[in-house]
C-alpha cells in the first residue's frame, strides 16, 4: 500500500529531527523524487539510519569490507564506541582490538597521543600494555600512549569527559570493569556528545559486565580466537602460533545488521585480515561406498531371552523399578 502524503511528510520530519540530534546533515535526508514505478520502494524508508547517510570520511574503516558494510561504513570517528568483553579472561582480547584500532587511527593522526583512562582496579587486574610490544605489534611509540589511573570510577569518568572535548588527543580510551551504576545513559551521553563536538573517537572498554544500555551507537563483543598456524614458504607450520586473532560480534549497531567475524591482526602491515572458517567438522565420505557398520540389532550385549508363555505374567516383585510410581516426598 502506498504511503499517504501526510505520513511521508511525518516520516521525513522525524528523520530530519533525528539527524539534528545525531549530528548529521539534515540536507542529506531530503525526500527523494520517486517515479511512479518506484512508489513501492519509497515506502521502505528506514527512520533510524542517521549514521548511514553521513559522508564516507565520517567512519574509521577497518579494512574488512564485510565488517565495514555491516557497521554502515565502519566505526564512527566522532562518537562513543563500546568494546565489550563478557568475561575477565577476555580483557586481553578487548585491549588488543582497541590497540589495533588505535594503530589505524594514528596512521591518520600522526604525532597526537592517545589517553587511556581507568581505575586502579582495572590496571591491577588486567595489567598495562607492554611498551616494546606496542611498537612491534601495532607501530605505536610508547610515548604516544598516556595512562591515567584514577582512584574511583567517578574520577575516571570526569577525566575521560574532559579529555574527550580536547582535540590534542587522537582518541580517548575509557576502561571499566563490571556493571557499574555510574556508567548509565546520562554518563555515556555526555561522552558521546563530547566526542561529536571534538570530532574524535572515544572507545569504551568494558570487562566482565552485562550489556547495559549506553549511548554508544556501536557495541562490539570481543573474545580471543584460536591463532592459526604460522604461514611459511612451504605452507602452514604445524604446531606454531600465528597472528593474534579476535572473535568479534556486533552486539549493537544503528544499521541493525548483526554479524560475527574472526579477525587477524597483521603486525607487519598494521592491518586486519578476515579469517573464514567452517565451524562444522567435515567427515570424509567412506571410500568403500556402503556403510561398514553392522545393521542395527545384529550385535547384542546380552543373550536373547525366550518370550514368556501366554498368560504368564511377572509377579509384583519382578516388575521393573521404573514402572512403579515414585513417592512424592
Protein model, in words:
Strand 12 and strand 13 (271-274) form a beta hairpin. It is built from eight helices and 13 strands. It has helices spanning 5-22, 39-42, 65-70, 91-108, 120-126, 131-138, 153-164, 185-198; strands at 59-60, 75-76, 80-85, 114-119, 145-150, 171-177, 202-207, 218-225, 230-232, 235-237, 245-253, 260-266, 271-274. Residues 24-52, 278-286 and 318-329 have low confidence and may be disordered. The strands form three sheets. A nine-stranded mixed β-sheet has the order 5-4-6-7-3-8-11-12-13, with helices on both faces. Strands 1-2 form a two-stranded antiparallel sheet. It has a two-stranded antiparallel ribbon with strand order 9-10.
Report the C-alpha radius of gyration, rounded. Answer: 29 Å
Structure summary, number of beta strands? 13
User: Average pLDDT, to the nearest integer?
Assistant: 78
Shape: globular
Give the secondary structure arrangement, pairings included.
Elements: H1 5-22, H2 39-42, E1 59-60, H3 65-70, E2 75-76, E3 80-85, H4 91-108, E4 114-119, H5 120-126, H6 131-138, E5 145-150, H7 153-164, E6 171-177, H8 185-198, E7 202-207, E8 218-225, E9 230-232, E10 235-237, E11 245-253, E12 260-266, E13 271-274
Parallel strand pairs: 3-7, 3-8, 4-5, 4-6, 6-7
Antiparallel strand pairs: 1-2, 8-11, 9-10, 11-12, 12-13
Helix pairs in contact: 7-8
Q: Briefly, what is this?
A:
The protein is α/β, with parallel strands linked by helices. It contains 8 helices and 13 strands. α7 runs parallel beside α8.
List the main descriptive attributes of the protein structure presented here:
329 residues, alpha/beta, nine-stranded mixed beta sheet, 13 strands, 26% helix, 21% strand, globular
